[in-house]
Design a protein that fits this description.
The protein is α/β, with parallel strands linked by helices. It is built from ten helices and nine strands. Bound molecules: NADP nicotinamide-adenine-dinucleotide phosphate.
């Protein structure tokens, strides 16, 4: 009998880091369940993967879903159960941010961030983990951010949500450490994707400092390898691991002041780049 095809579910797979992860895993022959809110873009992914990687004889199943609705995770789980698709690898990648003083932010947007970055991520994990435990195999990758390591004025909810992702992932990794299931928290720094425009931050490519940002492909390659090795905290980039370490050892008040300056600079770059 042939080897069972492993299936990975990736959220936010229509673009950015999620799509690059899908590309790598398609190339490696994994079955894919790709979830995104963007109906047209996610419907295009099977064709795009075949064009960009070369046709593979594997499952590519797409689901259009707004993960911020209460029933989204259940609906995905039910749909896959009906189709007899077992998820061996869960990649909670979809995430949103927003910029501004909390007092002035749009609450609807903030609550969407909370629902997507924390609720959907933990609900999907709660639904798909029992099968991984039962089959004594699984991998989970939760995409956090360098934001997980410290608070940030002007992006308070986003940074707090990523601290949740880090803390939650470390805790469940310990709970299931004897079950042959690995948990990886991917913590990218600035990465060139649609995220910057959505958050209102400058295009990092325009800043010209190549060491200060990664491409989505670089982050995905790093994250995929870390996940397959079962590395718990995965920080891509040359400078980012040092910054994460500094956040731990410096007084919190200094770190917050430095992060605030960075946020203000990002905002100026965003406005300068014509937005
Ligand atoms: N880019 C960075 O600098 C950076 C740095 C650190 C961490 N991260 C994290 O990396 C992850 C991926 O980000 P990215 O930069 O690749 O972002 P991206 O290019 O914006 O891709 C995210 C995808 O998720 C989709 N999405 C948004 N809301 C959704 C919802 N409610 N339900 C389902 N799908 C939804 C997006 O659709 P729309 O385009 O319609 O929103 C988009 O297709 C996020 O968790 C982000 O926080 C990014």
């Amino acid at each position: 009998m042939g080897k069972k095809m492993e299936v990975a579910l990736i959220t936010g797979a229509a673009g950015g880091i999620g799509y690059e992860l899908a590309k790598i895993m398609y190339r490696e022959g994994f079955g894919l369940v790709l979830v995104d809110i963007r109906a047209e873009a996610i419907a295009e992914t099977p064709k795009l993967l075949a064009e960009q990687v070369g046709k593979r004889d594997t499952l590519v199943y797409t689901i259009v879903k707004d993960l911020t609705t209460d029933s989204a995770a259940e609906e995905i789980y039910e749909e896959l159960s009906t189709k007899n698709i077992t998820v061996d690898i869960l990649i909670n990648n979809a995430g949103l941010g927003d910029f501004g003083d909390f007092v002035n932010t749009n609450w609807k947007k903030q609550s969407t961030i909370i629902k997507l970055n924390m609720l959907a991520l933990s609900h999907l994990t709660r639904l798909f983990l029992p099968t991984m435990v039962a089959q004594e195999y699984g991998r989970i990758m939760n995409v956090a951010s360098m934001a997980a390591f410290q608070p940030s004025p002007l992006m308070s909810v986003y940074f707090a949500s990523k601290a949740f992702v880090l803390s939650f992932s470390q805790a469940i990794a310990d709970e299931i450490k004897d079950k042959n299931i690995t948990v990886t928290v991917l913590c990218p720094g600035t990465t060139v994707t649609g995220f910057q425009a959505a958050v209102g931050a400058g295009n990092p490519e325009l800043a010209g400092k190549r060491w200060a940002y990664s491409t989505a492909e670089e982050v995905a390659v790093y994250g995929y390898k870390a996940m397959m090795r079962g590395k718990l905290i995965a920080i891509p980039g040359v400078v980012n691991p040092w910054l994460a370490w500094l956040s731990k050892i410096l007084p919190r008040s200094w770190v917050i002041r430095m992060v605030r300056r960075g946020q203000e600079r990002n905002r100026r770059n965003f406005i300068k780049s014509g937005n």
